[in-house]
From TrEMBL:
Superkingdom of this protein's organism: Bacteria
Domain Endoribonuclease L-PSP/chorismate mutase-like: 7-133
The name this protein goes by in its record: Endoribonuclease L-PSP/chorismate mutase-like domain-containing protein
Pfam families per the UniProt record, alphabetical: YjgF_endoribonc
Length: 155
């Protein structure tokens, strides 16, 4: 069997969800000039419920990292929907990680690793990326994490 993003997802037991539709007046992804820009993805648990809360105020770093991983799965689902084939991903260029944070919470990078680690697991060296991980007071729908992405793609 060929080692591809799809086989790596299967090996990890990850089934991609249906790509989430936009919740307002925007599109989930835009491809232009060899780049795919993916709108922010929010985390859903196995039952389809939003993962809510604030890091440092009832949500642990481990729980936040899992929420970030769930956002990354949403990003990959959007890649699949936009590209039709994850083999078209040349490189994960950048992730923007937004973490709902209590005022004294400073472990946003550790939370972001939940998404970053998954990108490397699925895309290998092409999954290594630049990243911002910032704390914010609140996120849409009260979620703990939101992540957007820029992806270099093959024609």
């Amino acid at each position: 069997m060929t080692d591809t993003p799809a086989t790596r997802l299967a090996a990890l037991g990850i089934t991609l969800p249906v790509a989430a539709p936009p919740a307002a007046n925007y599109v989930p992804a835009v491809a232009i000039d060899g780049l795919l820009h993916i709108s922010g993805q929010i985390p859903f648990d196995d039952a389809g419920a939003l993962i809510k809360g604030r890091l440092g105020d009832g949500v642990s770093v481990a729980e936040g990292a899992e929420a970030a991983r769930r956002c990354a799965i949403g990003l990959i689902a959007q890649m699949q929907a936009a590209l039709g084939d994850l083999g078209r991903v040349r490189r994960i260029v950048k992730l923007g990680v937004f973490v709902a944070s209590a005022p004294d919470f400073t472990d946003q990078p550790e939370v972001g690793n939940g998404a970053s680690n998954l990108m490397v697991e699925i895309f290998g060296e092409a999954g290594r990326h630049a990243r911002s991980a910032v704390g914010v007071y609140a996120l849409p729908r009260g979620v703990a994490v939101e992540i957007d992405a820029i992806i270099a793609i093959r024609d």
